Amino acid sequence: MPTSKKELRIEYKNLRKALSFDEIEEKSLAIANQLIQMPIWNKTYYHVFLPIEEHKEVNTEYILHLLSGKDKEVLISKSDFETRKMTHFLLTDNTKIKKNEYNIPEPIDGIEVPSSKVEVVFVPLLAFDVYGNRIGYGKGFYDKFLAECKTATIKIGLSFFESVNQIDDVFESDIKLDYCVTPEKIYTF
């Protein structure tokens, strides 16, 4: 059983690659339905990632519908690959979204909101363990962003797959999740 970030990254990219479009939609909807049961809906600012379809990420459109129905302020980000920093913008009816060179859908511009205002973050990931450690693509964007958030910010990973027992090479700078939601289960850390 692989336990290093590198091995797990390869394994989970392959598992994701094997998913069909219908499976992605079905699992993404199941994740959104799990989220409805969580005690997270009394906040105002929610940060959502827009999925990289080519990487078969969780389709967050269902979560966006939930947030819109609950009249929440939704933030989406633009990534700067030089500084590895994310800038967050309010998602409005006028927000224009364009894919960057890495196929990440991003807002072109808009009303900027600081990380310190974010109360709930839905975090993309490839794999996670029973301790709340996550593995992303290894660029460190989310670790940097989550470090800028308040300690009270709720960090929720979204995964198509269940947890692994343990990720061996966790760094002190890696920020743990508070929850991870899969189509079958809500993990609390």
Automatic annotation (TrEMBL):
EC number: 6.3.3.2
Catalytic activity: (6S)-5-formyl-5,6,7,8-tetrahydrofolate + ATP = (6R)-5,10-methenyltetrahydrofolate + ADP + phosphate
Keywords assigned: ATP-binding, Magnesium, Metal-binding, Nucleotide-binding
InterPro entries: FTHF_cligase, FTHF_cligase-like_sf, NagB/RpiA_transferase-like
Positions in coiled-coil regions: none
Cofactor(s) the record lists: Mg(2+)
PANTHER family, per database record: 5-FORMYLTETRAHYDROFOLATE CYCLO-LIGASE (PTHR23407:SF1), ATPASE INHIBITOR/5-FORMYLTETRAHYDROFOLATE CYCLO-LIGASE (PTHR23407)
Annotated family: Belongs to the 5-formyltetrahydrofolate cyclo-ligase family.
UniProt protein name: 5-formyltetrahydrofolate cyclo-ligase
Organism whose genome encodes this protein: Flavobacterium anhuiense
